[in-house]
Write a structure and sequence with these properties.
By secondary structure, this protein is an alpha/beta fold. The protein has a single domain, classed as Thiamin diphosphate (ThDP)-binding fold, Pyr/PP domains (Rossmann fold, 3-Layer(aba) Sandwich), CATH 3.40.50. Helix content is 33%, strand content 18%. The strands form two sheets. It has an eight-stranded mixed sheet, sandwiched between helices. It has a two-stranded antiparallel ribbon with strand order 5-6. Helix 5 (155-161) runs antiparallel to helix 8. The longest helix has 14 residues, at 22-35. The chain is globular. The protein starts with 21 loop residues before the first helix and ends with a helix.
């Protein structure tokens, strides 16, 4: 069966602000899934709470909406139970790097075959513009009118330092590059982190579409994504030019594959013993 863009069309109208950077991410995801020839029933999108996690509502696809910052945890459980599904996580920078930072660390360590797409707009946008873990120091926001006092988290450096299987960066201001990056990340075997630099047209008047278009530069052929120290040095180096593309990749054993090898089928197809479940539940009555 040929997969078409129409297969992913939802009847739900997006509730994002006009011009929101989430729109290009949604469209690029559809194009990437079609290019990878993944049918909607073979894809699961896990999200939490926020503007970015609204994405699967506007996509005809299997969806799990969980708690804020717990989308990575839910996705790991889903992948272990249904290893035949392509599992993609969408989260904001607050949910992924703030509330869900601990889950991110251990997902990198375990290396399940998952793709985490972080909509990084430097704000908690749904809850009216509070600073997030990636907000720049000195930025004046609702709860810090005199300026954010702490340094921003560097999620790329964090992921590379922990030998994340694949680390990429792109921007929704360059949709074609965004689509290519998603195709690479979703097709990668192992845990992939895609940090998407996204304009927030409501709360951020600095990091606009033009800002990213002028500063984001694709990595050249001279960049070796298998060189961990070089990749780390690249993302730690401040400058006007923002690197986008495949920053780091490492071939690592994928967690959970041995479970599928033992049983031959996804866990969800192996059945349950209702009597055993009842006995466990009775202990908590």
């Amino acid at each position: 069966m040929t997969v078409k863009l129409e297969d992913y069309l939802s009847q739900v109208a997006p509730a994002w602000c006009p011009g929101c950077g989430n729109f290009p991410i949604l469209e690029s995801l559809k194009k990437a899934l079609v290019e990878l020839e993944l049918a909607p029933e073979k894809v699961l999108v896990c999200t939490g709470i926020g503007q970015a996690p609204k994405l699967p509502h506007y996509l005809r696809v299997n969806t799990f909406n969980g708690l804020h910052g717990r989308e990575v945890a839910a996705a790991q459980g889903a992948k272990l139970a249904a290893g035949d599904l392509t599992v993609i996580i969408h989260a904001g920078d607050g949910g992924a790097y703030g509330e869900g930072g601990n889950h991110l660390l251990h997902a990198i360590r375990r290396n399940l075959d998952l793709t985490l797409v972080v909509h990084d707009n430097h704000f908690y946008a749904l809850t009216k513009g509070q600073a997030s873990p990636t907000t720049e120091a000195g930025a004046k926001v609702k709860l810090q009118p005199r300026g954010v006092g702490s340094r921003p988290l560097n999620p790329l450096a964090l992921a590379i330092s922990q030998s994340c299987s694949q680390v990429s960066q792109t921007t929704s201001a360059l949709p074609d590059h965004l689509t290519r990056t998603l195709v690479s990340a979703i097709g990668h075997r192992g845990f992939s982190l895609v940090n998407v630099l996204q304009p927030c047209v409501t709360w951020d008047k600095v990091h606009t579409y033009q800002y990213y278009q002028e500063r984001c530069r694709p990595l050249g052929a001279d960049h070796d994504p298998t060189d961990q120290l070089a990749a780390l040095g690249l993302v730690l180096k401040p400058g006007e030019r923002i690197p986008i593309g495949l920053i780091y990749t490492e071939d690592r054993p994928v967690y959970g594959e041995e479970l599928r090898a033992e049983g031959g089928r996804p866990l969800r197809e192996r059945g349950v013993e209702p009597g055993l479940v009842k006995g466990i539940m009775d202990r908590f009555r």
